[in-house]
Amino acid sequence: MENKEYQQPAFEYLAKALRLSFNALKIIVGGLVLYYIAFSGLFTVKQDEVAVILRWGRIVGVGEGRVLEPGFHWSFPEPVDKIIRIPARKVKSLGVSDFWSADLDNPQIAAPESFIPYLHGYCISGDNNLIHTRLQVSYNITEPISYIVNVKDEEELIKSVVSNAVIEAIGNSSVEEALRTQLEKISRLIRYKAQERLNSLDSGITISTISLERSTPPLRVVEAFNRVLRAEQVKSTRINEGRTYANRVINTARGDASIILSEAQTYRNTVVNETLADATYIQELTQKFKKGSKELETYLSYFYQEKMEALLINLEDKFILQTPVGGKENELRILLGKETKWEGVK
Predict the structure, then answer these.
(1) Which of 92, 119, 125 is nearest to 215 (CA)?
(2) Cα dist. 175→134, 169, 217, 218, 230 in Å?
């Protein structure tokens, strides 16, 4: 009995200590859980990206609030919440080589006799010629929610829509347009068709540029195409040279014509002014002297002689005919078609 009475207080103290220990442990565990929830849920969104929180597989938030901008944010730890980071402000680049052949990258390899579909990529132009082409696509994600919901593999999606656009664009173009003359136009058309398809799928992806990195005919005919290209370049060079020469000749002729017209106008004004001055002089003489008088005849004779001397001195060839004698007619022989020196435009 005495041992039982002695042990009872000890058990009570032990039970009390255990309760205190369990309470303390619960507080510690609870604190650790709260600490884990509070601090493990903190995350940062970088400047070139946005983020979306999935809670039990569903997007958290409403409207624009579903997309988290760069900065610090909080979410429940996994598996409750899952953070999806999207590089929305980063322009990505993707090469499309479905229409390219690896043989083209190694000029030492002989041209194949025929194409094997899974080894040699090619497309067909509108005039039934084969073309190898390689493209570079630049794009970014502009609608994160649509991207998360509708896109599983962005690279495969972009390759698919761009390949379909290439088939349509080059299929409606001639081989000359696809290889040389309309490359920029075809690139724009491919981008337009591919973006139209992405928009119809509500992919949230925007293509910024598509460039035809390289387009070439098959190896077996590439030398023939190069000869045509060189001939076209020579033709273009000759045409440009001809146009340059024509423009130079025309500009020189226009300059000479302008000088001639200016000199002619100056000469005309001089002749008109001299004629008006002579008319004024003769009018003054007729007013000063009586008509038919000896003084007037003398002045007019000297005036006539002075003008004839000024006129004849500028003539290279002069022919003086005497009055016919005895009613006969004078015979005048003039050499026509004399050699003249003419210098063309240089």
Answers:
(1) 125
(2) 15, 12, 9, 12, 16
**CA quadruple 276, 278, 281, 285: dihedral sign:** negative
Q: Which positions ≥6 away from 112 have C-beta within 8 Å? A: 103, 120, 219, 220
pTM over 0.70: no
What one-character DSSP code corresponds to residue 172? T
CA neighbours within 13 Å on the CB side: how many for 61? Answer: 13
pLDDT, position 346: 42
Compute the distance between CA of residue 344 and CA of residue 346 in angstroms, rounded to an integer.
6
**Length, in residues, of the chain:** 346
Q: Are 281 and 304 in contact (CB under 8 A)?
A: no
92-217, superfamily in CATH?
Band 7 domain (3.30.479.30)
pLDDT of residue 38: 56
Radius of gyration of the chain (CA): 51
Give domain limits for the chain: 2-86, 92-217, 231-312
Which residues neighbour 132 within 8 Å (Cβ) at sequence distance 6 or greater? 99, 100, 101, 104, 121, 122, 215, 216, 217, 218
Q: What is the pLDDT of residue 266?
A: 92
The pLDDT assigned to 14 comes to 67
Reduced to 3 states (helix: H, G, I; strand: E, B; else coil), residue 31 is: helix
Q: Is 84 within 8 Å of 49 (Cβ atoms)?
A: no
Q: How far apart are CA 198 and CA 192, in angstroms?
A: 10
Tokens of 333: 């022989």
How many helices (H) does the chain have, and how many strands (E)?
7, 9
Q: How far apart are CA 179 and CA 216, in angstroms?
A: 6
Structure tokens at 42: 């903190």
**Spatial contact of 317 and 335, defined as CB atoms under 8 Å apart:** no
Task: Provide the pLDDT for residue 13.
Answer: 67
Is the Cα torsion angle 23, 26, 32, 38 positive or negative in sign? negative
Dihedrals φ, ψ of 289, to 5°?
-115, 155
Q: pLDDT under 50 in the chain at which residues? A: 1-2, 342-346
pLDDT at 159: 93
